[in-house]
Amino acid sequence: MPAERIDKIASFLRRPDVDLYFQIHPNQVALPSFTPPSEWKYWWNWAGQPLDQSSSSNSWCTTKWQLLWLYYKRESLPNWIPFPHEGIFEDIPVELRNLIDQARSLTIPRDSIPDDSLAIPARHRTCGMSPKKAHEVLRMTGFISSLIETSELKPRHVVDIGAGQAYLSRNLRDELGLHVLALDFSEVQTHGAARREESNKRSTKQLKQTNGVQIDGQIPLATDLNLGTLDYETITIDADSLVSVTNRWMTNKKTLSSTTPNQGPTPILWVALHACGSLTLDILRAFAGRLQQKDRSLTWIPVGAVIVGCCYNMLRPEDRVLMRKDVTLTPNHLQLAAQTPDQWATSPAKFEETRLAMRKVAWRALLERVLAGSIVPQLSPNCSETDGPCSVSRPEVKRLGRLNDGAYTNWEQFVSRAEEKMGVSLLGEEMSSAGTKGSALESRLEVFHVLRCILGSIVESFILLDRQHWLREELKVSFRVQWQGCRGDDCDLHRALKGKQMYG
C-alpha cells in the first residue's frame, strides 16, 4: 500500500546513518582533515582495496563502484551485460548489501515505457531539435497519443506549460491534430517559438507546391489538413494564472468551435515536459482547485495532467514536503533526488557516459585535496609578530566551473586545465601523492557517490508519494496515478527526466 511505503521511506530517511550520506559532500571526503564517521567503518576500508579480479570471470566489472551497481541492478540487468555468478557479491560487506537491498525495496520502479506501447507516429518532424530534445518530444507525443486513445473523454485541447520553443506544442498540433495553448514565462522563448512557426509555414508552403513530395527533410504532416490550432502566450505561471489563462483561451470562439455544445465542460489535458521546481506543484494545485469547484456552468475542466517533474533543487521551501512534515529535505536531498542509477547502463554508450560522470565527481573532489595542500595560507595585511595572534585566510581562487569532457581524458590534463581556469599553480609532489588519482581515496569517493545516488532515488520516491498523498486529501475522490521511469537516453549521473505523473 502507498501509505505503508511512505511510512517506511520516512523512517529510513530519518535514520542517522542514512542521513550522513546527505550531510556530507564528496569534496569534503577528499580533504586531508576528513575523518570517516564510525558508521562507515564497515565499507570504508573495503572500498579502499583493489577489486579481486581472480574471484570473478566478469571482465566488465573492474572497480568497487561498478560491483555495487551490479549488485543493485542484479535482478534487472540490461541484456548487453553478462550476468555474474553470485559469488562475485560475497566480497561486498554484508551490511552494505543490506543497505542497498533496503534502498531498492523502497524505491518506486523506474522502468521506462516500452517503445511498442507508445503511439509514436511513423511520420514526424524533428527539424531544429537536438537529438535529446527530439527524443523527448517524440516519446511525449506518443505517450499523449496513447493516453487520449485509451481515455473515454478523448480530450482534444491541450495546454503545454513551460513550452519553451514549442517543439512539443507543434508536434501535438501537427501530428495529433490537437488544439494547443503554448505557455512560457519568457518573451524570448515565445518569440523564438513564433519565428520557428513562420519557418515551418514556409516549409509547408514549399511542400504543397511540390504536391506533397518530401523536400529538405520535411514530411507531410497533419498540419496540412488544418486539423489542429496553436496559440502562444507569455505569462508568469502559477496555480492561479494557469487557470485564468486556460479560461481566457477556452472562451475564444475559434478554440471552442470544435467542441460540441450541451455536452458538459470541454475536457482539457495539461502537459509539462519540463516542470522545473515548484511548477509541478502549481499545476497540481490548479488541477485540484478546478476540480473542487461545484459550479455547473464551467465551460472546461482538466481531466488529466502529464507532468515530467525536474530540478527538485529549485523547489520553493514550502513545497519540498507537503504532508509528511516529519521528514526534512535539505538542498543535498533535492540534488540527489535527480539521480537515476537504474538507467546508468541502458546501452554500452550510456555506461561510458556514466563512467565519465563518475570520474568527474571523483576527480573534482580530489582536486579539492590538491588545492588544500598547494594553496599557501596568507596572514592578514599589516600583521606582525608584535601584534599578537594574526588571522589566517586561504587566498581566493577562481571557481573551476564546467569543463568539457576532453579535460577528463587523463589526470594530468585535468589538473592542467584546472590550473589554467582557476589561475593557480599546483604543487607537483601533492598531485603525485598517495591521496590523489588512482588511489584508495578515489575508490572510496566512487563508492560513496554511488551509495548517495542509490539513496537519492528514495528521496524522489518520497517526494512523489508525498504529492500523491496530498492530492488524494485535496480531491477526496479516487483517481489513477501512473508512474513511469525515465528513458535511458535522457538520463545520466547528473541529468534525468523524472517519472511521468498522470492524474485523471
From TrEMBL:
SUPFAM superfamilies registered for this protein in UniProt: S-adenosyl-L-methionine-dependent methyltransferases
Domain Methyltransferase per the UniProt entry, residue ranges: 132-316
Superkingdom, taxonomy of origin: Eukaryota
Gene3D superfamilies (alphabetical): Vaccinia Virus protein VP39 (3.40.50.150)
PANTHER family for this protein: CGI-41 METHYLTRANSFERASE (PTHR12496), METHYLTRANSFERASE DOMAIN-CONTAINING PROTEIN (PTHR12496:SF0)
Name listed for the protein in its UniProt record: Methyltransferase domain-containing protein
Biological classification of the source: Eukaryota, Fungi, Dikarya, Basidiomycota, Agaricomycotina
